[in-house]
Amino acid sequence: MKKTLYYIICPFVALIAATPFLPQPSHQGMRLSHAFEPKPMAKPGADSSMVRLNDELTYYFDRHNVQDEGYEMVAAFANGHRLQVKTRGYLSALSVGTWRHHQHQGLGVVLDSLRRTIIGTWQADTLVQGVRLDSLGTYRGDFSGLVAQGHGAYQQADGSYFEGHMEDDLRHGFGLEMLLSTDGESRLRVGEWQKGRFWGERMKYTSERIYGIDIARYQHGKGRKKYPIRWDKLRIVHVGKNGSQNVSGKADYPVSFVYIKSTEGISVRNRYYVNDYAQARKHGIRTGAYHFWSVRTTGAAQAKFFIRNTLFRSGDLPPVLDIEPSKSQIAQMGGPEALFRHIRTWLSMVEQYTHVKPILYVNQLFVNNYLKDQPDLKRNYRVWIARYSEYKPDVRLTYWQLCPDGRVAGIHGDVDINVFNGYQKQFDDFITNETIP
Question: Could you tell me the CA-to-CA distances from 67 to 115, 205, 383 in Å, in that order?
Answer without folding.
Answer: 43, 10, 24
